[in-house]
């Protein structure tokens, strides 16, 4: 894999996409393949900005999740064919669309569920 292919793959991964690179048979095929990938990446970047998920560069973040949440996220990712980080960005964007009242109701529900789970059965 060339440096450009690596960078293209990393860019697609950051956008929540995967792509397998075919081995070009000659220089012309390689250049056409590379230019097509750049065009696709450019289109995907524009589509991403249209959805307004994030216009800022991505930054690595670490979270602690329960095993259940990790498994559910993996299932969602597999079912939707979207990267886990992209799913999380979409969920955050959806959350931001809620009214303050709806957010408060949701937080109260989470708190109640947390309290109920901590009660021994």
How does this structure look, described?
The chain is mostly helical. Helices cover 69% and strands 0% of the residues. The protein has five helices and no strands. About 5% of the residues have low confidence.
Set down the secondary structure blueprint.
Elements (H helix, E strand, L loop, with lengths): L2 H12 L12 H25 L15 H14 L3 H13 L3 H19 L3
Helix pairs in contact: 1-2
- Which structural class should the secondary elements be placed in? mainly alpha
- The arrangement of helices and strands along the chain is HHHHH
Mean pLDDT rating: 75
Contiguous helical run count: 5
Rg, please? 20 Å
Spans of at least 5 consecutive residues whose pLDDT stays below 50 are 21-26
Which term fits the overall shape? elongated
What percent of residues are in strands? under 5%
Distance between the termini: 55 Å
Got a strand count?
A: 0
Helicity level, as a percent range? 55-70%
The biggest beta sheet reads: none
Question: TL;DR?
Answer:
The protein is mostly helical and 121 residues long. 69% of the residues lie in helices and 0% in strands.
